[in-house]
Specification:
The protein contains three helices and nine strands, in the order E-H-E-H-E-E-E-H-E-E-E-E. The chain is an alpha/beta fold. Strand 5, helix 3 and strand 6 form a beta-alpha-beta unit. The protein binds inosinic acid (IMP) and magnesium ion (MG). Inosinic acid binds next to strand 5, helix 3 and strand 8.
Length: 173
Amino acid sequence: MVVGKPLLTVAQIQKKVRALADTISDDYEGKNLLAVGILKGAFIFFSDIVKLIKTPLRIDFIVASSYMKTDTIGEVKIFYDIREDITNKDVLLIEDIVDTGVSMNYIRERILMKGPKSLRICTLLDKKERRQVDVPLDYVGFEIPNEFVVGYGLDYDNRFRNLPYISIFKKTA
Ligand code: IMP
Ligand code: MG
């Protein structure tokens, strides 16, 4: 197993997180922001970005896991769900990566059923080429090529999440 050289360096990530936080701070001025981190993958991105958002906010989490039921149909399991009443909240979902879009679409629909005041999505990474389900993304850090990446919260088999940068991961025989 090989973790290659950084695809996105610590400095590139920091700069992007700051830029996203600035835009979000402007957009959510005077709103009732509830920032929802999608775990486990978003744990580092979430903690970095909320520190830089200037709008007063509340936080909550969703712990979700997706797996392939068949080669093409993904299934999403929720292990912990938002406990805040969201009917008067401007909910911002914070995710590490949108790949096929199956997970984010499932989570989005589930939240919309509870009737939030508004709902937007922020993802650090967008692997657009792989999209199967069209899901609207409001804030995107980086569009990345169709490669499996690890680090900055992203894992392979729950490993490499603590790398401070993002690298392409290759499985060797
Ligand atoms: P989806 O295919 O958009 O439903 O993405 C499901 C989940 O797969 C994401 O939230 C990530 O946790 C994981 N995932 C997708 N692509 C990668 C990757 O390149 N590295 C690590 N995890 C990934
Ligand atoms: Mg994830």
